[in-house]
Amino acid sequence: MNKKFLSAILFGALMVSSTGTFVSCKDYDDDIDRIDKELTDLKSQIAALQSKIDAGKYITSVDKTDKGLTFTLNDGSSYEVTNGVDGEKGEKGDGNKLTIDKDGQWLIDDEPTGWYCAKKGETATVIVPEVGADGYWYFVNKETGKLEKSTYKAAPVSAVEADGICTLTVVNPDGTTTVVKLPTTAASITELEIVGYLNAEGVFTAFSDKGSADNKYEMNSSAFWANKKYEWEWKDKDGSQKISGSIAEKTALVSLEGASLVVRVAPASADLSTVSMNLINSQLKEAPIALGAATAYKGLVARDASANGLWSVPMSSEVLSSVGSLKALKQNFFIDKNDNGIKDSDEKNIAFALKTPSFLSNYNLAFNNIELKAANAFINDKDHALVADANLIQKGNTIYYTGENIGTNNDSEDKSYISVKQGAINTFYFDVPTSIYKSQIIVDEFEKQNWGVEIEGNTFTVNKYFDKATIPSFPVYFNYIELVNDGSVKSVTQTVYIRLERSISAGVTLDAKAWTINAVKNKDNFTAPLKKMYDAMSAEELINWKEFVKNYDYEVYQVGTNADGSDKKISDYKQYGTNGENGSNKIKDMVSLVKSNGENITNAVDAASIKVNLNQEWPTNLAFDKEYYVLVSFKDSKGDVLSTAKLPFTVGIPALSTFLVKQQGVFNGTNDGTAYIFSQAYNVKDNDVIAMQYDLTYGFVKLAEKLQPKDATATTLKFKTNGYINGDDKNAEGQIAGIAEMKITSTTPVELTPGYTAIDASKAILMAQKGKNGKVYGQKFVIEVAEAKYVGKYAYSNDDKKAQKFTITMKSPIKEGSISAADGSKTISIDATDQQKIVESKFLAKTYSTAGTKYQLFPSDATKNGSSIYSWIKYTDGKITITPKDDKVLKVKEIQNTTEGKEGFEGYVKVEPVNPAYDTTGDITVTVNDVWGFSISQDITINIKR
Known about the structure:
Shape: elongated
């Protein structure tokens, strides 16, 4: 946007605002203050507008205000340009807004002026009207091409919208004008593409490349040329409503297969509803097809501006009176080289483009002429056909009638009828829409008022009950003009009897249930009370409901998973089945209605709750990350739905992590566990040592009990490892560990062979390969979940399993322990007599624990049998090993374990100092070997006192 234009408008607006009469110094000062304030306000507004335009914003709407015009931009901001306090008003107020209607006529504030830029169907350049020095609007005479004065006095502030530009004009106090051109939505369009069309039912058909040498996109159409004048009259039962019409002789028109074009516009934020459009050929000649105001494509978005840039543009045929023949009409749509009105094989369709005031799409839309065919009418769907065209009963030359519609309802109390829901849109449509010229729905005024019937085009809604006790049907007259190939028309009236379904209460949505499949099969069910549905009814409605309710049914849906985003009915899906196969029962068989005491109902009126009994049979192919709902419909004896209750629910299984709760003492809040190996009856000998092993159930809180709860269905969980250090299959040490299966039998020890296949977690043992204890010690081994199925049926995802990966590092509880003097030091004092016993109480031996689990160096047999710690120690002749560091200073003479039965008798090591002349020291080495081939050795200093 040119900055000098904005400066000019600022100046002009300020000049208008400053108009007035000054009568005193005080008044003059007040006016100066007022002008200064307006200067400041307008400067800031124009500066803001300047920055918006510079940033690529554009005008989306212009609205009149009490003082002028307000301009709204595409980012939602708005700016008011005013006439000022004392400015002279125009004929239509302070602000004028000029637009062009569909016939090419200029409108001032939506009122016709009689001035045209071009008649409909003519090609002309739009010349924007101007405000003359005399303050009147000057329009271009389309015959002479010159500006001519009109009788319309211009407002001080005006905006003219044409060709994508909003021309803002401000009349200055001296009679001159300041003009600014601002871009509108139409000027912002950078792309425009026709992507398909909607038929009368609203069903979308996408255009696709037919791969031919002709045009890319084709839509069927039919040409009609009236061979004489035809008249018709449609009316209701008593004749109080009459709608008449006619087609003059030689009238030409084109009927279309599509009711609306679907177009894509860029930028996606452009509001196409404000942009006028038409279809033109490459010679800029307009097609005889009218385009209405665009609306956001309802199939995807329902809002004022279509967020994805898709819009629906209504199409209708232009009625032409200047076409001399059917041949001439058809020649609007194909290049008739042979001039016979028939598209021969060597002739091509004319391509059309979609044109806005400032943009043109590609020329890739063509209309393929098809012969007119007999059209059959339907209401809502093809299961509700009206009387077929071939069976219509003729009365008179052109007027066709039918009696009541043919239906399958044999209710003796009423005529055949079609049931409709209160407030639902009901649509009449045709199987051959190209054969239909006009259509009209008529309802008797009495019925229309009493039943609240609203009609729009080929649709109607019934919005209120007139007689809720009996609910009789009433007639709806569907009238239409059917075009015939011979140039004649058929006027058809079909009478359809409509009955409003009895409905007592609007649908109620119950509180949602988030259900986790229960491991106890007979507890795998949930209920939802219907109290919310009953509470939604008034006292009278509840009485009526109890009187009329006779039946019920229910369906189960998965939310939003159909291809079009609608809810998928899954009622007939098979349940899981007891053997992992789909069973004979259906999903809807899980649903029942129960009384307040929990028993199944026999009468609908007794329903207190909805019960969903999964019984661990929920199908494995119905995802846990989807939403579902049960829809229960309560019906009267005729099948009318009195009320509905919707129960939303989700189905899930416990997180895999709930089974694998790590022991703090093993993992310390991480995924890396340190496991201290210990001996069990199922250990295996390996070269006179026991293979390193760790029962993985000890790493988790009550793992076995969680996998197999009492009276519940077991959950499958299996571990695996690749046996490499750190899980690195490139590690040079190779597969030095594996997972073995715990098998407790009468044989001791049980032979365990570590492997790499999946092993049940409740029986899984991490184990070193034969001869690999030394390589395995202190190294991390990665344990993974190989398989996990809740209650043996519902598999956890790979991501779930990966998230539970952990490592185990195996160490010896003996090797990682400590040996010291009883006071924690490494020194024990003795007298330098002949021989001295250093008893058990002088020593302190502990395992790996930080606090230390004490054990005896010289245990009795009973002590050994009373604690598993001693099964970790490998004894030589039942004793540990103690040796002197220097037998010239100190000798070890005897090691004796505690003897049971002798009160106060402690085990000891007897040492003998070697002839010390003075106080001296000597060291002994205490060594405890474990059963896995590792040991702890500790030097203890013996202070020898003379």
